[in-house]
Amino acid sequence: MAHRAGGRALSLMRGRLRLPGLAAVVGGCAGRGQARLGSSGAAVQRAPRTAGAEEADAEVNIRKKTFAEVQTERLEQAERTILIKCPSKLNEKKLLQYLSSHGNIKSHFLFENRGIHALIEFSEKNSIASLQDAVGIPSAVEHHVVPFKSRLFTFMLKNPVSQAAEETPVHLSPQSHIPVKDLIQKLCHADSISSQMYILLNEYQLTEENIRLRFLACSLVRDFARAYFPDSVVRPFGSSVNTFGKLGCDVDMFLDFHDTQKRATKMKKGPFEMEYQMKRLPSERLANQKILSVIGDCLDNFGPGCVSVQKILNARCPLVKFSHQPTGFQCDLSVSNSIAIKSSELLYIYGCLDSRVRALVFSVRCWARVHGLTNSAPGNWITNFSLTMMVMFFLQKRSPPIIPTLDQLKVLADDKDMHVIGGYDCSFVSDLSKIKPTENTETLDVLLGEFFEYFGNFDFRKNSINLRKGKEVNKPESSPLYIWNPFEQDLNISKNVNQPQLEKFVAMARETAWILQKEDKTQRMINKEPWGLAALMIPFGKSNHNKMKNRVKGIGSETIRSLLDSLKLNSASSLQKAVEK
Amino acid sequence: MAHRAGGRALSLMRGRLRLPGLAAVVGGCAGRGQARLGSSGAAVQRAPRTAGAEEADAEVNIRKKTFAEVQTERLEQAERTILIKCPSKLNEKKLLQYLSSHGNIKSHFLFENRGIHALIEFSEKNSIASLQDAVGIPSAVEHHVVPFKSRLFTFMLKNPVSQAAEETPVHLSPQSHIPVKDLIQKLCHADSISSQMYILLNEYQLTEENIRLRFLACSLVRDFARAYFPDSVVRPFGSSVNTFGKLGCDVDMFLDFHDTQKRATKMKKGPFEMEYQMKRLPSERLANQKILSVIGDCLDNFGPGCVSVQKILNARCPLVKFSHQPTGFQCDLSVSNSIAIKSSELLYIYGCLDSRVRALVFSVRCWARVHGLTNSAPGNWITNFSLTMMVMFFLQKRSPPIIPTLDQLKVLADDKDMHVIGGYDCSFVSDLSKIKPTENTETLDVLLGEFFEYFGNFDFRKNSINLRKGKEVNKPESSPLYIWNPFEQDLNISKNVNQPQLEKFVAMARETAWILQKEDKTQRMINKEPWGLAALMIPFGKSNHNKMKNRVKGIGSETIRSLLDSLKLNSASSLQKAVEK
């Protein structure tokens, strides 16, 4: 297959977005950063949200923090944070004045989630204790509440009618992404596919506010765990922290007893020993199941707004699912999962290294979702995690590579980066500044097309994807799609994917590669039809007739696809042959 | 029936025991008081336990504390207390030296309960935090424990063989009463029935150490509740605190949210109001059920030594039963039961007013148990509580009365004693010094016989027992035995008792009254057979042949009883006629 003739030159848009994307990530992942948050007493109406480019300059100089540093900061910040349900008619300034009698408010924002809510970050943790001490238990139903005192409050006006007059317009931070059809509209106004990809990233990625809410959700769950295990921490992992999270994605969190266990058996001086009497169980798994079970019950019975609590304790990784209404998140709570957090850190590093990484991942995942290749329900679909790993692998394979292999990251690791977890080597560099920036200058336009071409032609029958080595490796077993778990090297992260789903992916990738190759710059403006990335976000069967016809005129890929679908060919190789005819 | 010719003169034994009985009660109920507890560093062998008379002098001058004062002190003391499981070979002094590096030890004692345990009371609560900080998590099974850090520890010798040589003899405080057959032996050596009754009281009543353990059990459960409800308190009620508890009886405890609810809705200044978001439930009962359910699960899954946890949530008073191995108690945990605590206080007052009260109750209850009139299993049996109330009523009816009626106690109440709970008037005086001591000087010998005679002749068919008024009242409904709940005046505390059980009680009371009347002072020493109270503690069918024959010679009551048993006569009145023939 012929290579496309050169990439489109970097647009100004891309140039401007690239840096803030990176800076925002390391300062806490979001592209629409902290500048948006109000400070104490300030309750001004803020500008409607834009692509975030205007915030770039302020954030350029933020140094690249390590994953651990960001997590520690965020967790600590969340401990100083409360959430208040507000009346629909609100004078934001008065709320802040009222609260500031308990301490300095460092930041805050408002959002809509079954009513208006305010997230308030105090400068000092003890301001919360002061507030809690002054707040009452719901009085109307005094005897029918579970008197668990959390950091969730309700703010009320005593005389709503007279006070409503005082209301001032408030800015509400969006906590969900725009619908695909609105996204397509926005994409059409861009001047390059690269720009389109950054716009998509900007619309879909987690915001600063949303990340704070996620850490708050973890911190509120921690309050339940801490009740019995004072040294425990509830940490978010996966998409909430790996820089690849999309607005609206679930919050994966786990209960970390790490510190508790490190403290073991200190008091051993003299001829005596003293230890805690503790419930002993025949396995760690059983202990974790019991702990999760009880915490699940606590959330269910005591936690305000914790609903639909579901215990899934017999899964490989026992967990409790619940819906946290105050923050609006669907949460999955499991117990200490050190490898999962390493996996999040690895993606965090990749996401921070080059802004093209996240832009490409978000585009590919959005494309996969539109075309039914991924699905939020469990099944034989490719997962977002697998897709992300495929993009990483693709970026490792570029020449020059855009991101390093895991083995290369391991070489850069220093002593404190050395971690062996459950017998698996999870060592890699944590300090981003030690990683040499890529010399690759390919545009996202090029990378997007090449990605689909690369996987449209990948020999899935024979080869597996190995991010540690950054090269194709013979498949160790016969799963249709084999992607090595980067740390637990005996596991295939895409074991769930069956042959038909893989074939669908390959067929779609080829179709997409072909569309991108045929993309006619001059045509798209005249037609006023979705073009570039926008065109890829419409299910192929559903795009309008003209567009369709244009496509079919090409090499009749639509016909071929239908044919393939009906034949249900069962190997990527035969599929390849069919297309090459 | 003829009155016995005069009471036996007060023996020296009785004179000496009477005061300590009282003093120990007000200082915390037990007859073998605080003097027994070691103080810091002291690990001397203590004298074997005696009737406790030698401790009388030290306690005489303790002022009569109110029930609330005693509870508050005990609860606070329990918060400063820990429990340590020790090796069987122990050098007590070294253990104390070791612990005193964390703070001053105010008192301690050792006891046997599935191994040797030490209860340690620190002077300061923060000594426990210091100790907890230094103590390790069991290391051998590091990953298979539930890391809940309680106040239960295990003390180990690193080198048991060499250190065993250093062991010193230790005194173990008994936590259970002697078997009935041993009791009978002891009783036979006394010189009067009064003395016998005090010996029984002394052997069976809760000890200072046992009371501490009970409060510690509550305090440990409180740690679970406090995790979510920081202002909550777990309070013992019933036999653990009402001065009528027997060694080995269950610990009834309830979770008190009282303080939490009093604090409601303080922050109401200005035009705003702020309240906690809390789980709301359609009824208080449902809230209590949910809270008990979760705390039950916590105890079951996290609580070291909490076993056989049983949730009985659909009972009139929802509760969680569990066995607390570290203290050796069977516990019943319910939620806020203000009337139950008022009931405990009332009995506490009666128990403190005159030492004869507790001595008579313990004797009657022991008698009832031996003869199968009471049973620890639920059923149609008379409960210990009902029996106790019958004794109280009997003592109110003496002339002059030995204890006042509840209405008289209410007249003495001041403003702070006024309590209306759930619409029921629970007001009565709390200050014991306001109650005029009785002028009644009857001996226990007399009172015991009169008790059985009184209830052997009571018209249960027509009359009910009302402690508020201190007189028989027409039965408001047809339950065989009707004893007015002193506070919830529409409830009969002995509703469970059926006609056959009541008849059995009446028959036994008559038989016993007759035995006591026939009691031959001169005979008993010659025969070397159980006499007086001892004779009453042998099931009538089982006493030896000679004794039996003597009895039967009387009026053939045994024959009559058999006859009655076989006829299953169904009213006390017909029974009465049968006996009177």
Outline of the structure:
Chain A has 22 helices and 14 strands. With 581 residues, chain A is an alpha+beta fold. At the A-B interface, α4, β4, α9, β7 and α11 of A face α4, β4, α9, β7 and α11 of B.
**Largest beta-sheet characterization of chain A:** 5 strands, mixed
Task: Please identify the oligomeric state.
Answer: homodimer
Q: What portion of residues of chain A belong to β-strands?
A: 5-15%
In DSSP terms, counting alpha (H) and pi (I) runs of 4 or more, how many helices of chain A? 22
Measured as a percent range, the helix fraction of chain A is 40-55%
The strands making up the biggest β-sheet of chain A line up spatially as 5-6-10-9-8
How many whole angstroms does the radius of gyration of chain A measure?
A: 26 Å
Mean pLDDT of chain A: 82
Number of strands of chain A: 14
Protein structure class of chain A: alpha+beta
Note down, in words, how this protein is organized.
- The structure is a homodimer of 581-residue chains.
- Chain A is 42% helix and 13% strand.
- Chain A has a five-stranded mixed beta sheet, with helices on both faces. A four-stranded mixed beta sheet of chain A has the order 2-3-1-4, with helices on both faces.
- Chain A starts with 11 loop residues before the first helix and ends with a helix.
- The interface between A and B is large, with 74 and 74 residues.
- Strand 7 of chain A pairs antiparallel with strand 4 of chain B, so a sheet runs across the interface.
- Chains A, B: This is Mitochondrial poly(A) polymerase.
- Chains A, B: Its cofactor is Mn(2+); Mg(2+).
- Chains A, B: InterPro entries: MTPAP-like_central (IPR054708), NT_sf (IPR043519), PAP_assoc (IPR002058), RL (IPR041252).
